[in-house]
Amino acid sequence: MASAAKTQVETLRNYVGGQWLPAEATETREVRNPATDEVVAHVPLSGTADVDRAVAAAAAAFPAWRATPPQERARYFFKLRQLLDENREELARLIVTEMGKTLDDSRGEVQRGIENVETACGIPSMMMGYGLEDGAARGIDEEVIFQPLGVFAAITPYNFPFMIAHWFWPYAVAAGNTFIIKPSEQDPGVMRRTFELIEQVGFPPGVINLVNGGHDAVNALLDHPVVRGISFVGSSQTAAYVYQRGAASGKRVQASGGAKNAIVVMPDANLDTYLSTMMNSFYGAAGQRCLANSLVIPVGSAHQETRERVAEAASRLRVGDGLEAGVELGPVVSAAARDRIFAAITSGVEEGAEAVLDGRQVHVPERPHGYFVGPTLLDNVRPGMRVYGEEIFGPVVGMAPVDSLDEAIAQINAAEYGNAASIFTESGAAARRFRYEVETGNIGINVGVAAPMAYFPFSGAKRSFFGTLHPQSRDAVRFFTESKVVISRWTTGDNSPVTGVGR
Ligand code: NAD
Question: Is 121 among the catalytic positions?
Fold first, then answer.
């Protein structure tokens, strides 16, 4: 049965040195459509030999690519931007088929990825250095230049299989480095298609490579002495591991981790205007976003109205296959994820939370094998409960009412994660305090999903981010380059130092 199915379903290849190569590793894993449970591909679990081959190709390509002027490197990205734009619908559908989020959500993801390509087109300005005549002393000038380092790699999660790779590689490659992407083994299809477009662009062989796989490929990248740096996004546990193991082998590492984001609803919040942005942040992508708000902290009298309106709107969400028009809540990525989320809901109820809406009761008759979890709202969630502190990563919202903004801020700052937090209020003073005091990397003020645009860093703090420089934009360019300071002095014909212009 397994081998019969395998003949019909493709086994993905790696893209190394400008060629599509079968992995040397023989072990594979099934990729399934979460709405139907059908196997759509087999992904090879590449190992050390596959990583070695990709690193060798990337290292060989580096000297010539580095010597290509930045404006010429940028032109490859103009062309890529065009191809991505022409193929955006196909890319979005591939995301739905393997990850499960709705087509609208997937289109948004593709757009956010393309915006990073557009931003990286500005590399001649973005990687410019600066200098100062007589900066060191009279007649001695000083300047800093930013140089690429060599081979970098990105290890990405399943929940944004297209966008997150684009937080990194366009900046790294535009800056003159060469690159390897290791996508999530749960939904590698959209990056496979993206690499077909990359191939059409005609980057020199080895500049950008794709290695499919899981933890073996990650470990080989982390340990490889030629790889200069690692960009990682995934759960906090893996992020901490990647950060430590990468640093132990002398690499620079930026590692974004998990999250448990809260929104504070003040009594003066304008729910008429902002309920929809809140709902999107709770249940968009079935709660599988690192910026999903899975905790609501209503202050004082905001509790009752927020509970009623969220419950009413959530109960109307249409659950189903994300490819179907009108569906607002797709499946979660795997049967294992669904079972884990169900268990988290069960534990919340057992620990005393009140299930206002219980997503374990979901039925989607037209997709009986899909991994669905219905919209869930648990009220009276308290610190100490598993559903309060743990990242559930599903369409499950916990409501934890408090009496004051002080209490709300204290609760957010006591949490182990620090990815994002939002406040809904009409008070400038409350909003300013929130922005000033809350210890998360991204802040929303009357904004549900506080997602930074491509030209801002995607921040994060505490166990949501390990490192210094964040994904996207100037932070990314800085991460992918080293500063070199040049201090220079010249003598005149009579061997005395130059002391002024014109001498
Ligand atoms: P994950 O940690 O399971 O996997 C991420 C990557 O690490 C994958 O490529 C996977 O192959 C690899 N990996 C997994 N376990 C490994 C191990 N033991 N050793 C080496 N490599 C390993 O994460 P996921 O489930 O794919 O993604 C969801 C998580 O990502 C959530 O926690 C979410 O909050 C987080 N996330 C964070 C951000 C952010 O910006 N902070 C953005 C998106 C997702």
Answer: no
